[in-house]
Structures are given as C-alpha cells and as structure tokens.
C-alpha cells in the first residue's frame, strides 16, 4: 500500500512506536526509527524492518527535546529517502506527582517531548508534503487528550495541546492532500505504562495490582488493555486512500473510556 513512501516514527524503538514502524515497513514503506535503547537490539530491529519493507530502514538517536537534533533527523531522512511522506509523532514520557510537588524539569521535559517535538517535526516536513500533494501526519495522543487524571498535570496538558495543534495544522493544509490526525489510545501495556505502575502505587499508597485494576482499567469498560496492534491498524487506515477525507480528527481507541 505504501511502496515508494517514506516515514519517520519518533519513539519507535519500543511500544506503540515500534508497532507502527513495523506496520509501515510491512506496507513496504521506508522507515526512519528513533529512540533510545540497547544499540545492538536497535540495529537488529533496523535490519528486520529493512528486510520487511523491501526498502530501507534508518535509525536516529535524535533527542526529542533538542530542536536541532530533530531537524538533523529530518534532513537525513529526506536526503536518504528522497522525501518524508509520513510523520508519526509518538515519542512520549510520563511522570506522576501532585502538582505542588511536580519538579519543574519534569514538566519541561514532558511538554518538550510529548508536544513540542511534534511542532518541530511538522514545521520541517509540512511544506514538502504540501508541494508533493500528499502527506500523512499522525500524532499519538491519549485518552488524556480528552479527560484528565490526578497527578498527571504535565502529561494531560501536553496531550490536550497536541490535539489542539492537530486540528490547527489540519485546517492549514486541508487543500493540499495532507491529512493530520490524532490517535488517542487508552491504556496500552507499553514500557511507558509499565513504568507508571510502581510510581502510581507509591503516590496513591496502594498496591501495583490495585493500580492496574482500580486505576488504569477502572476507566476502560472493556477491562482490557488496548493492544499495540490495534493502534497500528488505525494508523494503517489513516495512511490509506480510504482516509483521504479524514483530517483534524482525534480517534479514540480506549475501550469506551471517554464514551461517558
């Protein structure tokens, strides 16, 4: 479906980003993966995705807090692939704390990585997409782009902001064949979510089992974690011709969390 197209997926060495990068490679797209982790494991992933795509897979360790590194990653992708047709802004971090105890540096990092990094990737790729008459920008938001939870002030603020930017950019490029959408999953068992469990247990003074059952899944009527594959499947559809008229949308995959 995407043969000849090239994509950047931020935060794609694990979790949702890795699932979306794998999906894109499976659709024959060239993919730039990005993130941190063991170098040997990342190189193995890069080789696997290159084989899967039948094209090319690159890796960038660009720090999503650093605008110059983001720009360099995009320049490398454009130079090696010839174009960047798809951008998936997935990079994210989390920190859980009452706001009066929330460290300022954690606030700054969450806003920078979860929201501002998407501003930089979009501003450096959108003009070329508009000129080519085709592009897909997919911002991975969260159910927390629609509702709030205690102790997550920075994350909730960043995800609400990300969806606001999604809607704005969608309007700016609606006539150019470029769509801009957000996907808002509920809880997906990724490293980011797994790392929240002990922190939330400590903050709330409850067990980790209670965090899973009474905090996380309490809001998802299905009482199941959303799978990475489900999120990747929605991203696949948004890249297809069937989604040509879907832009400025925030698509919930949350087991009914935000239906109430």
Explain this structure.
The chain has 260 residues and is of the alpha/beta class. It folds into two domains: 6-186 and 227-253, Rossmann fold (3-Layer(aba) Sandwich); 187-225, no CATH class. The chain contains eight helices and seven strands. Strands 3-2-1-4-5-6-7 form a seven-stranded parallel beta sheet, with helices on both faces.
Classified in CATH, the superfamily of the largest domain is NAD(P)-binding Rossmann-like Domain
Tell me the strand order in the biggest sheet.
Answer: 3-2-1-4-5-6-7
Number of strands: 7
CATH topology of the largest domain: Rossmann fold
SSE pattern, N- to C-terminal: EHEHEHEHEHEHHHE
Give the fraction of residues assigned to helices: 40-55%
Based on CA inertia axes, which overall geometry fits?
globular
Query: Can you tell me the CATH architecture of the largest domain?
Result: 3-Layer(aba) Sandwich
**Uncertain stretches of 5 or more adjacent residues:** none
Features:
260 residues; Rossmann fold; seven-stranded parallel sheet; 13% strand; globular
Topology, element by element:
Layout: E1 6-9, H1 15-26, E2 30-34, H2 39-53, E3 57-60, H3 67-81, E4 86-89, H4 104-132, E5 135-140, H5 153-172, E6 178-185, H6 191-204, H7 208-216, H8 228-238, E7 250-253
Parallel strand pairs: 1-2, 1-4, 2-3, 4-5, 5-6, 6-7
Helix pairs in contact: 1-2, 1-8, 3-4, 4-5, 6-7
């Amino acid at each position: 479906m995407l043969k000849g197209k090239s994509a950047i997926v931020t935060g794609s060495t694990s979790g949702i980003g890795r699932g979306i990068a794998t999906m894109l490679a499976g659709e024959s797209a060239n993919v730039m993966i990005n993130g941190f982790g063991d170098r040997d494991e990342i190189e193995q992933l890069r080789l696997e995705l290159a084989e899967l795509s039948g094209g090319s897979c690159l890796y960038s360790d660009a720090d999503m807090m650093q605008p110059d590194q983001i720009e360099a990653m995009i320049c490398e992708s454009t130079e090696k692939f010839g174009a960047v047709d798809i951008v998936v802004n997935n990079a994210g971090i989390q920190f859980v704390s009452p706001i009066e105890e929330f460290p300022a540096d954690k606030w700054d990092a969450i806003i920078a990585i979860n929201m501002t990094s998407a501003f930089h990737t979009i501003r450096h790729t959108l003009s070329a997409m508009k000129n080519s008459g085709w592009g897909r920008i997919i911002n991975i938001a969260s159910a927390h782009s629609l509702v709030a939870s205690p102790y997550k002030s920075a994350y909730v603020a960043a995800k609400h902001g990300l969806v606001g930017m999604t809607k704005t950019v969608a309007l700016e490029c609606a006539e150019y064949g470029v769509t801009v959408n957000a996907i808002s999953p509920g809880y997906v068992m990724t490293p980011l979510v797994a790392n929240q469990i002990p922190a939330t247990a400590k903050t709330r003074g409850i067990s980790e089992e209670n965090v899973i059952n009474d905090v996380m899944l309490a809001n998802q009527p299905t009482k199941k974690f959303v799978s990475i594959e489900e999120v990747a499947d929605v991203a696949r559809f948004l890249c297809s011709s069937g989604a040509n008229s879907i832009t400025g949308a925030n698509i919930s995959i949350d087991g009914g969390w935000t239906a109430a």
